[in-house]
Amino acid sequence: MSVFVPADYFRELRREEIFPDATRPLEIDLGSGDGTFLVEMARQHPGRDFLGIERMSGRVEKTARRIRRAALPNVKILQLESAYSVGWLLPSAGVSRLHLLCPDPWPKKRHHKNRLVNNAEFLGGLERILVPGGEFLLKTDHPEYFSDAQASLASRLVFRSLEWPEDAFCYPQTDFEKHWLALGLTIHRARWRRT
Ligand SMILES: C[S@@+](CC[C@H](N)C(=O)[O-])C[C@H]1O[C@@H](n2cnc3c(N)ncnc32)[C@H](O)[C@@H]1O
């Protein structure tokens, strides 16, 4: 089944409700857009499970079509809001890596509170859902969003910043990343480990 529909949206999920084998690493792509990165990661890492989370119906449907065409058993898409999913729904100590790639930057000052990396529900949830040694990976074209993220994560003692050289591991470019790069913008990236 390409679309994941929780049996109950109002309690924490068990890891095996998302994919049956709870011993496999689970990766989350938050705000997964049309699913290009999500499906490519699932193709390249058959030993890992991937869940995309996206709130827009059209993008969820497009991702579901991509998953069905690729016929991969290790990838699903969930239509839901990111902060709620991370804060309350996803299983505690159940996620190996969480990817937040080209999130909406909310550039206006009065909207900065909407940035995920400034959201206490999200940050507390990130701490809760990552396994010890699990990673949070961020890419953004927006320098101010990037500094907000660095300040937020630095204020949480369980996160340690890691190097992320270009060739550290295989990491497909996302649709938005390709678009910003084609316009000549710089993509900032950072990676943190949950201790
Ligand atoms: C700028 S796009 C980036 C998409 C993809 N990650 C990429 O890099 O190509 C941001 C995506 O996050 C989704 N999104 C934004 N806020 C969200 C939220 N609170 N919950 C779930 N999805 C959200 C948007 O609908 C959009 O698809």
Textual characterization of the structure:
The protein is an alpha/beta fold and 195 residues long. The chain has seven helices and seven strands. It has helices at 15-18, 36-44, 57-70, 82-89, 120-129, 143-154, 175-182, and strands at 26-30, 49-54, 75-79, 95-101, 130-140, 159-162, 188-194. A seven-stranded mixed sheet has the order 3-2-1-4-5-7-6, with helices on both faces. It starts with 14 loop residues before the first helix and ends with a strand. The site of S-adenosylmethionine (SAM) has 18 residues, from strand 2 and helix 7.
Features:
Rossmann fold, single chain, 23% strand, alpha/beta, binds S-adenosylmethionine, 7 strands
User: Spans with pLDDT under 50 lasting ≥5 residues?
Assistant: none
Shape: globular
Bound molecules: S-adenosylmethionine
Q: Could you name the CATH topology?
A: Rossmann fold
Enumerate the strands of the largest sheet in spatial order, edge to edge or round the barrel.
3-2-1-4-5-7-6
Strand and helix map with partners:
Blueprint: H1 15-18, E1 26-30, H2 36-44, E2 49-54, H3 57-70, E3 75-79, H4 82-89, E4 95-101, H5 120-129, E5 130-140, H6 143-154, E6 159-162, H7 175-182, E7 188-194
Parallel strand pairs: 1-2, 1-4, 2-3, 4-5
Antiparallel strand pairs: 5-7, 6-7
Helix pairs in contact: 4-5
Bound molecules: S-adenosylmethionine (SAM).
Kindly summarize this structure in a few lines.
The chain is of the alpha/beta class. The protein is built from seven helices and seven strands, in the order αβαβαβαβαβαβαβ. It has a seven-stranded mixed β-sheet with strand order 3-2-1-4-5-7-6, sandwiched between helices.
